[in-house]
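WARN retry 2 of 3 for item q-0093 after timeout on previous attempt; input resubmitted unchanged.
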Amino acid sequence: MRSYLILPALLLAAAVSACGGNDDAPVPVQQTGTKRVDPATAGSIAGRVTFQGTAPAPATLKIDADPACTANGNTLVDESLVVDGSGGLKNAFVYVKDGLADYAFDTPTEPVVLDQKGCKYEPHVFGVRVGQPVEILNSDATLHNVHAMPQRNGEFNQGMPLQGMKLKETFTAPEVGVPFKCDVHGWMASYAGIVAHPYFAVTDATGAFSLPNLPPGTYTLEVWHEKLGTRTQQITIGPKQSADAVFTFAGSS
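OK item q-0093 returned
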């Protein structure tokens, strides 16, 4: 292939990708509630998500199809089921599913960052508010193609051929478990939890999570996991009260 044909193609791909992102302004969010959270009476919910049974060891992913992905001895493991020695489940998305309809919340303008680094998405699971920008980066010296596949929001599919490229997108409706993939590197995956309020968390390596500054009330709390599905429970907290919540997914023994 003649080299002078490559540069225009890359520049065109870059332009298309750059035009695909939305501007920096948050999308207006329609809210039915008018109440504001009173910090003087707010409480919290904290807890842990666990896996009961024997979890398989994470498999090493085959990534040598692209030499850029194995540069400097880089290796990757499957992150779809990560359990620590005491059963703590990492990368579960925990959020208030119901109970906040009377409240209104300001939409953040600071973007949530999803990076493509070392031929993996970082983070593997993330939360973002409805109308809040998601800034997608390509930190790798190779072509990535970001393909988000929501059900309630608009799908997008954007090539990012150049290292350092940035793309901004926003979601307009709540939706949990939105998959992101790379059409170039089939092992790359990430999942978004899109919510209309700030009460969500992703469990850490021990399965722990925390939802601070929650107003008094009765809530339906849900945890979502990409392989294990969902669990819900109802929790009531009073003024300045802290509550504990434990979720358990059963695996093979």
